[in-house]
Specification:
By secondary structure, the protein is mostly helical. The protein folds into two domains: 37 residues; 32 residues, no CATH class. The protein has a two-stranded antiparallel sheet with strand order 1-2. The longest helix has 31 residues. The chain is elongated. It starts with a helix and ends with a helix.
């Protein structure tokens, strides 16, 4: 009986510790992303890349610059990441 009580007490302690960690993580996320709390975050929909064939073996993205403009970044940054 005493062993069962200790086991239940230990499991309850772990559960409470887990809940404290979970609360702490979500508090940090809310502090760094206030739009997450209000629910006003703009939904981002990316156009699918249009792949075209160049010759017999190579392919290319036809709308690569449009995708870069949607991200509001320079295309050279994406070029460096893709290579």
């Amino acid at each position: 009986m005493f062993l069962l009580h200790d086991c239940v007490l230990w499991m309850l302690t772990l559960f409470l510790y887990y809940m404290q960690l979970l609360t702490r993580v979500f508090d940090i996320m809310r502090a760094k992303n206030p739009e997450m709390v209000t629910g006003e975050k703009k939904k981002f929909v990316m156009k699918p890349p249009q792949v075209v064939r160049i010759g017999t073996k190579k392919t290319s993205f036809a709308n690569f610059t449009d995708i870069c403009k949607m991200y509001v970044c320079e295309s050279s940054i994406f070029c460096n990441e893709i290579r």
